[in-house]
Write a structure and sequence with these properties.
This protein has about 210 residues and is of the alpha+beta class. The protein has a single domain, classed as NMB0488-like (NMB0488-like fold), CATH 3.40.1590.
Length: about 210
């Protein structure tokens, strides 16, 4: 689900490995194939009008537009790393923004991390120049304390994440360490974003990864 041919709930976007190795988190307007990893592409849907759904969690009020948002979650060595995807001017979706990380032993924190990542509104990013792709993948590598996606993938599990309205779809991956592996949509776990069980559901989806 992601390096030299990484696919996530994305589809495959080839990026020269000598420029970005392994390719950065990338999604494009394509069919829903593999899982979440640096070089992947995903189908995209038309941007809809903002029609926020509001809910509260831990005394906070959240507002999520009724349009699909996406993210990736990686479980590695007892920690869950979550990062958002945003669309570029070229129609691809790439990893963007800070990476939030919590211990997998704290499902409430894991769920809160995902909510925080999905909160910001969508906006279009400038498409990265060839020499900028490394910067796209660097936040996740830095958060995990590794230097390459090959090392990151070893022993890790990954989820492709979609959020439309109040519903979050958690899509398990298979064989993430094998060039990003593939997604397993038949094992998708769905949960409302306001649910206190969001973190638990994420851990259940990780358990469904192969």
């Amino acid at each position: 689900m992601f390096p030299d041919r990484q696919a996530a709930h994305l589809t495959v976007v080839l990026v020269r490995s000598d420029v970005c190795s392994p390719p950065c988190h990338v999604r494009s307007l394509a069919e829903n194939t593999s899982a979440f990893h640096p070089q992947a592409t995903v189908r995209s849907r038309p941007i809809a009008e903002f029609s926020p759904s509001r809910f509260s969690h831990r005394d906070q009020v959240w507002s999520i537009p009724d349009v699909e948002k996406s993210a990736v979650a990686i479980l590695r060595r007892g920690r869950v790393y979550v990062q958002r995807y945003m669309k570029t001017t070229a129609g691809l979706s790439i990893a963007h923004g800070p990476v939030r990380a919590s211990a997998s032993s704290d499902p409430f924190a894991v769920g809160d991390d995902l909510r925080a990542v999905l909160m910001p509104p969508d906006f279009t990013l400038p498409h990265p120049a060839q020499h900028e792709w490394r910067n796209v993948q660097q936040p996740m590598l830095d958060a995990a304390g590794v230097r390459s996606w090959k090392v990151l993938a070893q022993g890790s599990l990954a989820l492709g994440i979609e959020c439309t309205g109040d519903v979050v779809s958690l899509i398990p991956s298979a064989h993430y360490e094998n060039e990003g592996g593939r997604s397993q949509p038949n094992r998708t776990v769905q949960v409302e974003i306001a649910s206190s069980d969001l973190g638990e559901k994420m851990l259940a989806a990780f358990a469904a990864c192969d």
